[in-house]
UniProtKB/TrEMBL annotation:
This is Squalene monooxygenase. Pfam families: DAO (PF01266), SE (PF08491). PANTHER family: SQUALENE MONOOXYGENASE. Its main location: membrane. Catalyzes the stereospecific oxidation of squalene to (S)-2,3-epoxysqualene, and is considered to be a rate-limiting enzyme in steroid biosynthesis. Pathway: Terpene metabolism; lanosterol biosynthesis; lanosterol from farnesyl diphosphate: step 2/3. Its cofactor is FAD. It is found in: Membrane. GO terms for cellular component: endoplasmic reticulum; membrane. Residues 62-92 form the FAD dependent oxidoreductase domain.
Length: 526
């Protein structure tokens, strides 16, 4: 009988051991699942800096894009169409309400067509075609038409409500199953051993999250809080825009932007819908009259209104009286990237110029086309150092378009502003009269502004042609010592305007990009 008890004890012990092993394995699996694996919601739990655990999007993403404005939305759609798995994180997915980013030059529209997004800037958002500019000075006017003879009838500039344009692109993103668009605020880049691995952000519910990808592209706009990690920012604030909407009025030149060389600085008008005209009044510096206490309305009524073309005066005063006056600080920042493995900057987070010429979206869309083409041969983005070295070519290859538009914007703004300096006054007069000559004198500069002729050397030659034209006018009927002195100061002033801008863009990158080794970078071996 004793052997039965012994045998029973052995069997119980064996069964207990097996049971214990099953329980232990199950518990260990659960612990491993919490510490390393994906839970039922598709998140990975990772320790945060304060020791708590932070949910993290499972690593099935190729590209994380910060921001879904013009640049971020266009880039997300483009990379999604290329088959990339993209996670876009945008601070606010409601329709933006801005007073800039409303005019797309013809060169930018051509890039939009290359990206397959041209239907986002058509009649569905009441976008208006723009065929050129009208320039006003002291009651005189000249019309500058885009050189579109060699293009189809659909090719022109486009003007629209910025928010409608962005929302239309976001709708296109939603049609791609491999692109996730999420509302959240990115707080920091996740870095490991000098390589950017992704981002940390707070989702719409306020939960702290992480998203990982081999490539992070930061497109969070002019107020970017991440750019300092990826570039050396030198942000200037040359002026402010005061924005109004004029309703049910006709521009003197239909489907044209209007630039008034006012005092102290330019005034812009352009259509943004079939019944609305945007007015932007430039105010130099960082301070503007107060809107709240009525000082702004007085300034617009007493200083600006007398300079507005008579056809627009009534609608302008009605818009001022209506009181929906918006202001925005204009910013300028040359591109000074710090190549960082795993990340790249794009859009206004990377490069800004004065919005006078409406070139910002053209630069951004051109950059996106270029970046798409550089990434196209790569099936694997995981070799961050090799990818970073290869993408250094991006910063050189983008220069023809970006430097032409950036330099023109900065130079024109300074020339168009009023000044008590007689030499600057002569330069302003010379610029208006040079453009009024028509022919090559008008066609050349407007092709540069439109983004159709991205050649920095042509910009340089036209700018100094204006200066030489101004000096020539001073020498007629005959040169006096004062005229020679004034002409000399005009040339020096012109040099003082353009050379610092060129220096900021980089002389070698702007005029001799083929001498830079990165220009010839080949894709890394896969």
């Amino acid at each position: 009988m004793d052997y039965q008890y012994v045998l029973g004890g052995v069997l119980v012990s064996l069964l207990g051991s097996v049971f214990f092993m099953i329980i232990n394995t199950t518990l260990s699996g659960e612990k491993k699942k919490v510490s390393n694996g994906v839970n039922g919601n598709g998140y990975v739990w990772m320790p945060s800096q304060n020791g708590s655990f932070v949910p993290d999007i499972a690593r099935g993403t190729d590209v994380v894009i910060v921001g879904a404005g013009v640049a971020g939305a266009a880039l997300a759609y483009t990379l999604g169409k290329e088959g990339r798995r993209v996670h876009v994180i945008e601070r606010d997915l409601s329709e933006p309400d801005r007073i800039v980013g409303e005019l797309l030059q013809p060169g930018g529209y051509l890039k939009l067509i290359e990206l397959g997004l041209e239907d986002c800037a058509n009649e569905s958002i009441d976008a208006q075609k723009v065929f050129g500019y009208a320039l006003y000075k002291n009651g005189n006017a000249t019309k500058l038409s885009y050189p579109l003879e060699n293009y189809t009838s659909d090719i022109a500039g486009r003007s629209f409500h910025n928010g409608r344009f962005i929302q239309k692109m976001r709708e296109r993103i939603a049609t791609l199953k491999n692109v996730t668009l999420e509302q959240g605020t990115v707080t920091t880049l996740v870095e490991e051993k000098g390589t950017i691995k992704g981002v940390m952000y707070k989702n719409k519910a306020g939960e702290e999250m992480r998203s990982y990808a081999p490539l992070t592209i930061v497109c969070d706009g002019c107020f970017s809080n991440l750019r300092r990690n990826l570039c050396t920012p030198n942000v200037e604030n040359p002026s402010c825009f005061v924005g109004l909407i004029l309703e049910n009025c006709d521009l003197p030149y239909a489907n044209h932007g209007h630039v008034i060389l006012g005092d102290p600085s330019p005034i812009l008008f352009y259509p943004i819908s079939g019944t609305e005209v945007r007015c932007l009044v430039d105010v130099p510096g960082t301070k503007v009259p107060s809107v709240a206490n009525g000082e702004m309305a007085k300034y617009l009524t007493n200083v600006v209104a007398p300079q507005v073309p008579p056809q627009l005066s009534k609608a302008f005063l009605a818009a001022v009286e209506k009181g929906n006056i918006r202001t925005m600080q204009n910013k300028s920042m040359p591109a000074h990237p710090q190549p960082t493995p795993g990340a790249i900057l794009l859009g206004d987070a990377f490069n800004m110029r004065h919005p006078l010429t409406g070139g910002g979206m053209t630069v951004a869309l051109s950059d996106i086309v270029l970046l798409r083409d550089l990434l196209r041969p790569l099936t694997d983005l995981n070799d961050a150092p090799a990818l970073c070295e290869y993408l250094e070519s991006f910063y050189t290859l983008r220069k023809p378009v970006s430097s032409t538009i950036n330099t023109l914007a900065g130079a024109l703004y300074k020339v168009f502003c009023a000044s008590p300096d007689p030499a600057r006054q002569e330069m302003r007069e010379a610029c208006f009269d040079y453009l009024s000559l028509g022919g090559l004198c008008a066609r050349g500069p407007i092709s540069l502004l439109s983004g159709l002729n991205p050649r920095p050397i042509h910009l340089f030659l036209h700018f100094f042609s204006v200066a030489v034209y101004g000096v020539g006018r001073l020498m007629i009927p005959f040169p006096t010592p004062y005229r020679v002195w004034l002409g000399t100061r005009l040339l020096l002033g012109a040099s003082g305007i353009i050379f610092p801008i060129i220096k900021g863009e980089g002389v070698r990158q702007m005029f001799f990009p083929a001498t830079i080794p990165a220009y010839y970078r080949a894709p890394p071996l896969q």
